UniProtKB/TrEMBL annotation:
It catalyses: (S)-2,3,4,5-tetrahydrodipicolinate + NADP(+) + H2O = (2S,4S)-4-hydroxy-2,3,4,5-tetrahydrodipicolinate + NADPH + H(+); (S)-2,3,4,5-tetrahydrodipicolinate + NAD(+) + H2O = (2S,4S)-4-hydroxy-2,3,4,5-tetrahydrodipicolinate + NADH + H(+). Its EC number is 1.17.1.8. It comes from the Bacteria. InterPro entries: DapB_C, DapB_N, DHDPR_bac, NAD(P)-bd_dom_sf. Residues 1-104 form the Dihydrodipicolinate reductase N-terminal domain. This is 4-hydroxy-tetrahydrodipicolinate reductase. It holds the Pfam family DapB_C.
Amino acid sequence: MDIILIGHGRMGQAVEEEALLGGHHIVACFDTQQGKPFSRTAVLPQADVCIEFTIAEEAYNNCLTALEAGYPVVSGTTGWNEGVKKLQALSEQNGWSFFYAPNYSIGVNLLYSLNRHLANLLTHVNGYLPSIEERHHIFKKDAPSGTAIALANDLIDIDPSYTNWAPAPPAIEDNHIIPIVSVREGQIPGYHGVTFTSQVDRITIEHEAFSRKGLAQGVLLAADYATKHKGALDMKQMLDITE
């Protein structure tokens, strides 16, 4: 594939490295921090797909500009959920290709599936309360992570007794609120765990990334998928996860 990178931070660099190893071509790279923002006035080369990893404040305009220019877009920027929903709706209406995921790791998306399955099982069992922990490197700007929020939102969708999530410890102890613990230390690529605790035992499912390599590989699989499909695209569609 001929790829335009929008954002050349840690994830952008990881995607670039993995893309070149796979025989793909980076035809342009835009990054506000490097003095080359992506905009309607920029010279945009021919490319098969745009891959966007920037910051929440830039993501909506970046992705909209690329979609309006006719590119399929793969975005992994987190912290702009309302903007994502708008672009998903516009992509369905206009036949654009917009692939969004808060986490492109295949393993994390299997964790999502396990989380939903376990939550469904526990709706028939009383006494288990969920909590979520996520750990990342000190440079990650958003907290909780988009992945942790997605895990929490899946629990809320499945069990209506949960009304929201909150950073832990919450200001008010409430069994209807799912607490999320966020840790920022060292160079941790990413850890997510969901724990269901009762008075007599505990069930934990977790995923730990060893590097960004798995994320970058997932992004490139998504990019290939986006070149062949239209509309609002996600990892569940690509991996054919139907539950």
